[in-house]
Write a structure and sequence with these properties.
Length: 144
């Protein structure tokens, strides 16, 4: 007679445990996606800032501090590697034989500790993504 209540309680505890685990996993993914949205939004803002900066600087692109000093980005971007949520942004600006260029990446701050994707944008205006390593111009376009 006491076996049935114990068995029923055990089954209920197992179900509750699985439900909590599923909820926690979903919550972690939700936080990760929110951080990714902030990072991709920042990359789109940077792309617009670069185009505006280039239009008034003889086609040259600016660094983060230059874009912030010119008023195209806010004060958060005054460093060489600003962070947005749990993403660190890095930018490369220069000149090649075909003219000025820039590229910007958004990488998870602790890539080994979480499942964040890596993002990349450049003068082509195409946002690119890589799930396992820093994204480059050869990675596939990001499809939200």
């Amino acid at each position: 007679m006491t076996r049935f209540p114990i068995l029923a309680l055990t089954v209920l505890l197992c179900i509750a445990s699985l439900s909590c685990q599923s909820y926690s996993t979903g919550l972690q993914q939700s936080v990760s996606r929110t951080d990714e949205s902030a990072a991709t939004g920042a990359l789109h803002t940077i792309e617009l800032a670069q185009q505006t900066y280039a239009a008034s600087h003889e086609g040259d692109y600016g660094t983060f501090p230059q874009l912030a000093d010119a008023g195209y980005l806010d004060e958060r971007f005054k460093s060489n590697q600003p962070t947005v949520k749990d993403y660190v942004l890095t930018m490369e600006v220069g000149k090649r034989s075909d003219g000025p260029y820039y590229s910007c990446r958004a990488d998870p701050v602790n890539a080994g500790d979480r499942n964040g994707r890596h993002f990349y944008i450049d003068g082509t205006k195409i946002l690119r993504v890589n799930s396992t390593q820093p994204a480059t111009a050869s990675d596939p376009a990001f499809q939200p």
